[in-house]
Design goal:
By secondary structure, the chain is α/β, with parallel strands linked by helices. It has one domain: Rossmann fold (3-Layer(aba) Sandwich). The chain is 40% helix and 16% strand. The chain has ten helices and six strands. It has a four-stranded parallel β-sheet, sandwiched between helices. The protein is globular, with a radius of gyration of 17 Å. The protein starts with a helix and ends with a helix. The structure holds zinc ion (ZN). Zinc ion binds next to α2.
């Protein structure tokens, strides 16, 4: 057993599945709380300079969504939660059913820096990506896009400082794996949009053909720096 498997095993013992919203035992989201989340049943097209489109299951304005996201951003970090989060995304696709075909896309998780990865034990975006990869039968490409510089959490920074904060943070390690590919960037939350935008910009520079984003939840547009910048 690897260290991460042991960690997961211990977490399962000490943190039995409890609803993140109401603390009821059984699952990370009990049916009652799930029903209050308002999973979007339509696709809201959203494109930026480097993203063709963005798919998200939950609008962040919903108070229960906000609470859920705050919980999974902080400790304890539960790897298995990715299954619940991915199922929200899948439910969104099923409810909106636009017949999206992602069969020629490759999934890439928004990477974490080494330090943060060690601290958290896993990359939640990557865990969600694994589940989506199985569902959509798309390959998941790990280690091609990497984070080479630690950053301050974006939320603690003003809009101007955010872009600065991301300068030289991401890098493409394997350019051949990216060139001419249609890519889906996966993350848990699209808050300011600046992290995903910077990842997409770096992938474009490595000659990616097209990039779309998939996240569990999206913040209000007026909180989005790139929207304001346009
Ligand atoms: Zn609940």
């Amino acid at each position: 057993m690897g260290i991460n498997q042991i960690k997961a095993f211990l977490l399962d013992i000490f943190f039995p599945k409890i609803c993140l919203n109401c603390q009821r035992e059984g699952d990370y989201l009990c049916p009652d709380c799930l029903s209050t989340l308002e999973i979007l049943n339509f696709h809201q097209k959203h494109s930026t300079r480097n993203l063709t489109d963005l798919y998200f299951a939950l609008p962040y304005q919903n108070i229960n969504t906000k609470r859920l996201i705050q919980k999974f951003k902080y400790q304890p970090f539960i790897r298995e939660l990715a299954k619940t989060l991915a199922s929200l995304i899948i439910a969104h696709f099923q409810l909106s059913d636009n017949g999206e075909n992602f069969s020629d896309f490759t999934l890439i998780p928004v990477p974490l820096g080494k330090k943060r990865l060690r601290w958290r034990g896993f990359n939640q975006a990557e865990e969600i990506g694994k589940k989506l990869s199985l569902y959509f039968k798309m390959p998941l490409l790990r280690g091609a896009l990497i984070k080479i510089k630690e950053t301050q959490p974006q939320v603690e920074l003003a809009a101007e400082a955010r872009k600065e904060n991301l300068n030289g943070v991401f890098s493409v390690k394997n350019k051949e794996a990216i060139a001419n590919k249609k890519i889906i960037l996966v993350d848990d939350v699209y808050t300011t949009g600046s992290t995903m935008e910077e990842c997409a910009r770096i992938l474009k520079k490595a000659r990616a053909k097209e990039i779309i984003g998939i996240v569990v939840a999206r913040a209000k547009p007026e909180e989005d720096y790139f929207q304001n910048a346009n």
